[in-house]
Every structure is written in structure tokens, then in C-alpha cells.
Amino acid sequence: MPMPHQVQMQIIKRRLVGKDGVARVRELRAILGDLPDYKNGPYADIRKWVMGEIEQTRTRSRVVHRDSIAVRREGVAQVALVGAPNVGKSSLLQALSDIQIKTGDYPFTTLRPVAALTMIHGLPVQLVEIPGLIAGASEGRGGGRALLGVLRGADAIVYCHDATAPLDPLREARTEVAAAGIARTALLAATKLDEAGPDAIEHLRHAIPDLRVMGVSILDEASLDGFREAVWQLTGLLRVFTRRPGSADVDPLAVRAGATVADVAEALHAGLGAACRGGHVWGSSARFPGQLVGRDHQVVEDDVIEVIT
Question: Which residue in 295, 252, 292 sits closest to 272, CA to CA?
């Protein structure tokens, strides 16, 4: 007997994370071969969705936009790394993921947005490095309008600033983002912290009081872990766990703060939210382990939810 269709859909989406083009089509075909050949019901709908994804991926691969710099969203959230040229954005992205980027101690080493996934709390978060924004970017200078268009689609912003450098380039980058009418939750990452003096962070906090400031060095794993945690808080997401009735296995799932059991069910599979009657909950939101709750029960970080339909 096949596993519940909502669990199967969750597994399929995880198998597709990080895959595009030919690799995505190959994985989709493998998924199609693994699915039961039902003509009706939820599994038939899943087969139809997979075949539609194959066709859409083929279409995207055939269309080439020479000047396009669109970034395909992946993971549970997209966070943009923004700042002046040569402040360490590429090095930070490399330290947080498996991607390899050309880096150098000179401006404009990165000319197009670069996306990579980093795992936070067991969930993939997409970081997108935006090439250095300069004065006049909002008016098109240095390809600024296209870059800001990418930034417009992000869920949050991490402004990156070399902790040893003057503040003017950072202020210019923030001015251009504001001029483009882009307002996102944000924090300031003081990069190259290992090269900075002991008062660098306090100086930045005093100079930029409207942003949370945290130091990060690619040579210090503890600071990278702290950065990941700060990024997670920036997304406004909660990590919960789901499990099937009768199983001890749990899977992480990202939901918005204030999410209910019905929202968790909907996040597992489209349409499951409407069928959800409630669930069993283990965690801080429950009065006792395995409490039976209604569909409108609000979940909190690290709750384990067993959905009932």
C-alpha cells in the first residue's frame, strides 16, 4: 500500500530542492516511475502535477533571456545579501553553502545574483547574493534596476558591511533600496570581523541604530551558526514537526508565526487543510503530550503535530 498522498507530496518536493534544468527533469521522471499508476484519486493528481512540472521545466530550459537575472525561488524562504561591492558577500555565501564562487579583493567580482541553499534547523533557506549596489542603482546605474527587481522578490534582507570599512557605501546601498520602494525586515551583518577592532560592532550599532547588528567571520564557525539563527528569526517562520499516525518518525516543516493545526495540514498538502479536523500535539503549545486539539489550535516552535482528518 502506498504511503499517504500528503506525505508523498512532501517527499517529492524535498527531492526537487536544488535541482533545475536537465537534473530537475531527470528527477521528475524518476519520481513518476516510482508513483503508483492510479487513474483517479490523490495519486492521480500527484502524477498530473509531476507531468506538469516536467513540461514547465522543459519550457524554461528552452527559453533563454540573455539579459534576465531572475532568481528561481527555492527553500522555505528567500533572503537577499545586499551591500556595496567587495564587502565579503560571496565569501559569506560560500561559507554557508556548498556553492563555489569566484572571489577577489577587488570590486564587482560578482556581476549577477548568485543563489545558494543553506540548512537552518534542518530546513533549506535560500540566500541570494545581490551584486554590489552603488549610488544611482535605483535609476538604472550599474544595472541597478534589474538587481533591485531581484531584491523585490526576497522575503528579507541582510545588509552586509565590511566591519573595517567606512559607512558611506553601506548608506548608499540602503538609500538605493529605499528609493526603489523596497521595505523588508532586515539586519546588518558586520563581515570580516576577524580583521576588525574590538569596538567595531558597538560603533556600527551606534551609527546604524535602526538595524540589528551582528558580527560574522567566515573563519569562526560559532559566528556562522549565530548568523544562521539570526537569518531564521528574520524569516518570521516557525519550525514544527509532523508525523503520521502510528509512526515515530518526524519531518520538519516551516510555517508562519501564528499558524494553526489546519495551516500545518495545508502546508503538508494543498487541500488537506480543508479536510483537517484537528490533531494530536506534543510540545510547548500542548497542555500534555499528545493533546487532542482542534484545527484552530495555534502551534509554536518545535511542536510535533499529528494531523487528523
Answer: 295
Per-residue pLDDT of the chain (309 residues; tens, 9 = 90+): 567 777 888 888 888 876 767 778 888 888 888 888 888 888 888 888 888 888 877 765 544 333 346 788 889 999 999 988 888 888 899 889 876 555 444 444 446 788 999 999 999 999 999 887 777 777 777 677 788 888 888 999 999 999 888 999 999 989 989 988 999 999 999 988 888 777 889 999 999 999 999 999 888 899 999 999 999 999 999 999 999 888 888 999 999 999 999 999 999 988 888 899 999 999 999 999 999 999 999 999 999 999 998
Q: In what order do the strands lie in the sheet with 156-162?
A: 114-120, 123-129, 78-82, 156-162, 185-191, 212-215
Burial 66-92 (b: 16+ CB within 10 A, else e): eeeeebeebbbbbbbbbbbbbbbbbbb
The answer to whether the beta carbons of residues 309 and 246 sit under 8 Å apart is: no
d(Cα 287, Cα 268) in Å, to the nearest integer? 24
Query: Can you give the pTM of this predicted structure?
Result: 0.72
Rg (CA), the chain: 22
CA dist., res. 34 & res. 46, Å (int): 12
CA distances from 169 to 83, 87, 151, 182 (A): 8, 10, 18, 18
CB proximity list for 14: less than 8 A, separation 6 or greater = none
What is the rounded CA–CA span in Å between residue 122 and residue 15?
14
Cell of 219: 573563519
Helix (H) or strand (E) holding 292: strand 291-294
* Single-letter amino acid code for the residue at 189: A
Sheet containing strand 304-308, edge to edge, reads: 251-256, 237-242, 304-308, 278-282, 291-294
